[in-house]
Amino acid sequence: MSQRPYGVLAMSRYARETAFPAPVLHRLDGHAEVPGTVLIDDFAAADVREHLERAEILVTGWGCPPITADVLDAAPRLRLVAHAAGSVKHHVTPAVWERGIAVSSAADANAEPVAEYTRAMILLGLKGALRHAAEYPALGWPGEARRGDCGYVGRVVGVVGASRIGRRVMALLRDWDTTLLVSDPYLTPDEAVALGARLVDLDELCATSDLVSVHAPELPETRHLLDDRRLAMMRDGAVLVNTARGSIVDTEALVRHCVSGRLSAVLDVTEPEPLPADHPLLHLPNVTVTPHVAGAQGTEIALLGDYAVAEIARFLAGEPLRGEVTAADLPRLA
Fold first, then answer.
1. Is 90 noted as a catalytic residue in this protein?
2. Marked catalytic residue, from 146, 223, 292, 322
3. Active-site choice (16, 91, 230, 245)
4. Which CATH number applies to 7-105+298-332?
5. Is 292 noted as a catalytic residue in this protein?
6. How many angstroms separate the CA atoms of 206 and 226, rounded?
7. What pTM value is reported for the model?
8. Which Pfam families does the record match to this protein (predicted)?
9. Residue 30, class by beta-carbon neighbours within 10 Å (0-12 exposed, 13-18 middle, 19+ buried)?
10. Span(s) in the chain for CATH 3.40.50.720
11. Active-site hit among 116, 273, 300, 324
């Protein structure tokens, strides 16, 4: 009889194929008995109960349905939910923690692609490269007058939210000749210094930054955190980069500031999402909108499966989970 604990994959087929290609499944098989042919996307399906009854580990991903109290009643041996993606808010319910089941997220692994995307867009935004590219067909080769106010050297970059992604972005920018500001209600001045930044309130950050990069979680209190008042505080010619959540920025206010040409923006997330085809933000030369691609895409998604496998190995060895999510963490997470 196998000594490996029994596990089940609960996610969409796309998530299974991208996060758990053959090499990752092989590594998973070294730690747990997880049949690759069993894929749960509906806990109420007739053939699911026998697998839930045996499961000690639930490996979740995009498309996992909510893990309710009824689901847990059918899974009396469950000890770990290892999520091969970022946020667990959409499927892990309070009942999971109430029953003492450990929860892990691969948000750390997803943070790296987002942070690298953000660094790239910060550079392109400060150099004016995205706007020049959009204007090239109509305005042609930019002369000296259109090249003057650009570049990253000596600039001030403001980071809204010292989240795991916000911290990684600051780490990636530390070697640049830029001044880093950060605004986060849970951060101390000394912690900000350790990150290579200066802690300021959000109003000061908006007023003094050449580029503002948003990394706050989506919470009731962060809705429209960057509203018309704060967008109006931003310097003429400043750039807004948002890779967090669209609701953090007041879309209508941002449209007004970008239509006037006063601000530029790079948006990987929007509200609404997706934007309708005739939305002004999709047709402005000073706004770049990408379709929520900053996080793990394509070949990067296997990083999430690898992270989940490593977490399972740590859990079975009695080691701390690096991506553990507790009920107390949930209100502050994206």
1. no
2. 292
3. 245
4. 3.40.50.720
5. yes
6. 9
7. 0.91
8. 2-Hacid_dh, 2-Hacid_dh_C
9. exposed
10. 7-105+298-332, 111-289
11. 273
